[in-house]
Specification:
The chain is α/β, with parallel strands linked by helices. It has a domain of 220 residues: 3-Layer(aba) Sandwich (Rossmann fold), CATH 3.40.50.1820. The protein is built from 16 helices and 8 strands. Strands 1-2-4-3-5-6-7-8 form an 8-stranded mixed beta sheet, with helices on both faces. Helix 2 packs across helix 3 and helix 3 crosses helix 10. The longest helix is centred in the first third of the chain and has 19 residues. It starts with a helix and ends with a helix.
Length: 347
Amino acid sequence: MEMLLSLVDLELTLLNPATFTVATITTLMTLYVYFIQPSMLLKAYFRVAVRWSGMRMNYTKPLPDGFQFFYGEKGYRKKGQISILMLHGFSADHFMWAPVVRNIPSDIHVIVLDLPGHGFTSNPINEDDIEFKGQVRRIRQFLDLVDLSSQPLHVVGVSMGALVAGIFASECSQMVSALTLTCPWMKTPFESRIIRENKKVVLEKYGGLLTLENCPMLPQTAEGLQNMLDISHFHSVKYPQQILKGAVELRKQKNDIYLHLVNILISEETSLILENLLNKIKCPSQVIWGRDDWVVDVSGVDILKEKLANCQQIDILDECGHAVNLDQPNLFATKVLTFWKSLKNSL
């Protein structure tokens, strides 16, 4: 033991004092960030993951009312090529697309937009911004700002983003060349597990209103977030408590917006929006769903298959939950690109 201590002593005396100081400070800062400010660590990870996917991050210039969009972009617009616009789900942002975009070749133009109140796009200025038709209006403004409004797009949406994509395709048909609906938010023939397990309590105890106390999709603790991840993913991963705490703190900054929006989402009126406009969507369409989706039941596929006017491709992914982009990012990208490539022959 004495020999070991003397060797350590020798190593420390030989170490450059400046190097030792930097190493000590770096270690202390890392420990501080991990234990005291884990959200900082997550932010850094998100930035690295997005960059690794090949996306460039951009803000648009502000609109006259001060509203500003944030978006990711991979590749560049090409004449004769259909650009892909991706719309995320409830309480998500551009980061959720990073694992998918990483699997898309850089010669294909992809735009990933943060919807109002999500990510780094401006928070809703008024009630209209958070309603779905208001979100569609904002998407049109965004496309004007980035000079993509004159070229029809392949619009890909997940969950709430798929609902918005469906509304956009029905109202702005001249701007949409194709549509991919991925586990869209809608009323399904069979209720999902998350609805079955929470419906009775929410109705009886809270009068049908979701709150921060009872909404499983708005967790306020590390344990609640782990539970939400277990519900939305097929592959369950147990995350370190500090990382979960950091993620909860980041999400809490948008609590008011998310709570307002989720209560709009669960309304009977909203649950029927997509089904009621399916016959108005004339562009070539694709449906993707995780076979083990516990949030929006896969039985919704039957409605889309029957009522979508031009449904050309249906993909049910095995070993996949609601978070299709995270459970099966490579397979998801492959299915989207297969459909995208077929458009050149069908349009």
